[in-house]
Structures are given as structure tokens and as C-alpha cells.
Design a protein that fits this description.
Blueprint lengths: L7 E2 L5 E5 L4 H13 L19 E5 L4 H11 L5 E5 H14 L16 E4 L7 E6 L10 H15 L10
Parallel strand pairs: 2-3, 2-4, 4-6
Antiparallel strand pairs: 1-3, 5-6
């Protein structure tokens, strides 16, 4: 039986974060970083009541890969930047893009922190995929580095602080 973890955040996101291994500690670090850069209403609890993500949505690659494919298909026309957390998030993102008809170059580039790949769907707007380490381990990715990476993604996506997303 597959695990399905639904996405959460803005339903019209310009910034999409693919988290392949959601856990409470990592989600709180992501929420804290998004709050510090101005796109989350609260510093903890991405799924907590009262939490709103502005111009940003977090989706999971846990379990059935077709679930991520469906979620990406629903928001793809608005997404400008995808942050892929870790190698699993990177691979899942490239698979979801391929399922949506966005073909990465062959051979597809592998994950590396700081990796950047811009692809243009047929008849669509370019989407940039950014690879960053998964925030589950603060020894690998310090809060300041996570903030800097997500702020860069925010700027590239054109998401302003509290831009009025629908949460």
C-alpha cells in the first residue's frame, strides 16, 4: 500500500518545494526559514492551523510517485521554481517533470547542493529546479544556509514577502 502525503500551502504557487522525507523536525526548520524570508505566517508547523504559505507550496515525494505527478500537474502553470530537497527530491522532481512532458537533458544531471537546471515545457514558461540538501540534518545544512537557499529561490520565483497567496 502506498503512502500519500498531500501538499500544503498556496494553491497558486510560484515556488514549489519537493520534500521527499517529511518529518516534524525538518518541517519546522522549513517553516522557520520560510517565515524568516517572509513567505510563511508562522515559524513552526507547516501543516498547523493558522499557517499560511504565500506563493509557496510544499509537496511530498513519499510513496506513490504518481501522487507527486498529479500535484505538479495541478500547479505547473504557476510554478516558476522548484526546490528539490536532497537527491531523492531531485530525482522525484525530474520524474514529475518528465510525466508532465518536460524533458530534462540526457543524461539528466544528478543532484548536487546548489545544482540548477532550467527547463522549458512545450508552449510554457521556463521552470528552474534548484537542488539543496535536505534540512533534516542541521549539521549538513545550517539555518543560515537554508535561509539563503530558500531566499534565492523566492527571488528567482518572484515571490515577495507575504505576497497575498491563498495559503
Amino acid at each position: 500500500m502506498s503512502t500519500i502525503v498531500t501538499g500544503y500551502g498556496d494553491t497558486l504557487p510560484k515556488l514549489l518545494i519537493v520534500d521527499p522525507a517529511p518529518d516534524p523536525a525538518a518541517e519546522d526548520r522549513i517553516a522557520g526559514s520560510l517565515h524568516r524570508i517572509g513567505v510563511a505566517s508562522r515559524p513552526t508547523g507547516l501543516r498547523a492551523p493558522g499557517q499560511h504559505l504565500f506563493g509557496t507550496r510544499v509537496v511530498s515525494a513519499v510513496g506513490d510517485a504518481s501522487w507527486l505527478d498529479r500535484e505538479y500537474a495541478e500547479v505547473s502553470r504557476w510554478v516558476r521554481v522548484i526546490v528539490a530537497l536532497g537527491p531523492t527530491g531531485w530525482d522525484a522532481t525530474l520524474r514529475a517533470l518528465a510525466a508532465a512532458g518536460v524533458v530534462p537533458p540526457e543524461p539528466a544531471p544528478g543532484f548536487a547542493p546548489g545544482a540548477r537546471l532550467t527547463l522549458t515545457p512545450a508552449g510554457g514558461r521556463p521552470v528552474t529546479v534548484l537542488g539543496i540538501d535536505h534540512p533534516a540534518d542541521p549539521d549538513v545544512l545550517a539555518d543560515a544556509a537554508l535561509d539563503a537557499e530558500l531566499a534565492a529561490a523566492q527571488t528567482l520565483a518572484g515571490v515577495s514577502a507575504a505576497c497575498g497567496g491563498r495559503g
